[in-house]
Amino acid sequence: MAQALGEDLVQTLELQDDSSSLGSDSELSGPGPYRQADRYGFIGGSSAEPGPGHPPADLIRQREMKWVEMTSHWEKTMSRRYKKVKTQCRKGIPSALRSRCWPLLCGAHVCQNKSPCTYEQLAKAPGDPQWMETISRDLHRQFPLHEMFVSPQGHGQQGLLQVLKAYTLHRPEQGYCQAQGPVAAVLLMHLPPEVSPPLCSFPLPRGSFCAPTQEAFWCLVQICEVYLPGYYGPHMEAVQLDAEVFMALLRRLLPRVHKHLQQVGVGPLLYMPEWFLCLFARSLPFPTVLRVWDTFFSEGVKVLFRVGLTLVRLALGTTEQRLACPGLLETLGALRAIPPTQLQEEVFMSQVHSVALSEQDLQREIKVQLARLPESTSGPPPRPQARLPGAQAIFEAQQLAGVQGGTRPEVPQIVVQPPEEPRPPRRKPQTRGKTFHGLLTRSRGPPLEGPPRSHRGSASFLDTRF
């Protein structure tokens, strides 16, 4: 099953030519005159100006200042105010600050600080010829109408080649998966080489895109190994498990749609892998893709299930829509041809957040479907416990492991002292009728030579000589 899944995905991605990439609405519209690019860098795109429902400039500046304050004290923010981080991610990270926030949310900055020379060594090392040939054939397919990836010798395609090659050297047992191309391309668009991005109310200048950064590589590593472990390996065992989970959620949340999909023979492996593996980078308008990624970095794979359920409901939610799709091809066409007006970022994301799916519900369903998987499947079994549900879990795991300081934190130990032996009560000295001078002389040693002084004739304390 896992091998068949991999072949289906490869066929799905290879059959698409350059003009069929659904990474953004600019690619759907085609190149415009004079090669004018929109605000996201897509040639001939329709996102030159903010769309309807876009927040005003004053609100964007307020959100920028909130993110600047939160990221300036990131450990304190994640320890005490994660709910605010989650809320701000759902509202959308400002474009000027995504290069600063994405590595913090996914923990890539910690990995980079722990191994500062790893990427440089991997980038200089020669790659495996088998993977290098496959990667080179796929470079021109990743957002071909984006100004970063237009030229084969440009910094975009060459940077993408370096990042993907570095990952094959970093994890040779996994190698390269075609779905990593769109993910790495989106990371390169938003992680330019500047150490700290300009804190302003407009996107980074297009001229700043050049060599790939360590942040893009480490973000890709975190996505493949922490957010979606088992997705990009040779067996893709986690995809099969999540496909069963997705169908179970459809049965519970959208029973009529689930029944229709079963009747026409459309299984989740026919449409879900491209959604989840590419993080919807090839299936949604680009502004909506960025909003999905903001929330995904914050809340984890739960967001992908919510987005997928929303897309299925928009495509097949009504009786008229299901009647218009009597067969398999019509149903798949409906899932891939949702009107762009229904996918606008603000309206679409509000529907995504309203899906009744919590992290507890998802984990419960994963356990149920994991127990139902046949034991005779080839390849390693899926390990859903290795997947961390979002930024808070990643931050806590890194803090527990002591990655930032390079040493493991000291775990406080409880030391139980044996009870002390009871001591006899101390007897209070009898000082009644005795002078202070007499107490001093008796405590220091034997009495002084000379005639004893009677009690009645002794001098008072005020008359003693010091």
At the fourth CATH level, what is the homologous superfamily of the domain at 237-374 and 384-401? Ypt/Rab-GAP domain of gyp1p, domain 3
**Total strands:** 0
The helix fraction, in percent, is 40-55%
| CATH top level class name of the domain at 237-374 and 384-401 | Mainly Alpha
Class per helix and strand makeup? mainly alpha
N→C terminal distance: 101 Å
- Our count of helices gives 23
Assign the CATH architecture of the domain at 237-374 and 384-401.
Orthogonal Bundle
Amount of beta strand: under 5%
What does the model show?
The chain is built from 23 helices and no strands. The chain has a domain at about 235-375 and about 385-400: Cyclin A, domain 1. The longest helix is centred in the middle third of the chain and has 17 residues, at about 235-255. It is about 50% helix and about 0% strand. With about 475 residues, the protein is an all-alpha fold. Helix 7 (about 110-115) crosses helix 12, helix 10 packs across helix 11 (about 180-190) and helix 16 (about 285-300) packs across helix 17. It comes from Neomonachus schauinslandi.
Task: Note the main attributes of this structure.
466 residues, mainly alpha, Cyclin A, domain 1, 23 helices, 52% helix, globular, disordered N terminus, GTPase activator activity, Rab_GAP_TBC_domain, small GTPase binding, Rab-GAP_TBC_sf, GTPase activation
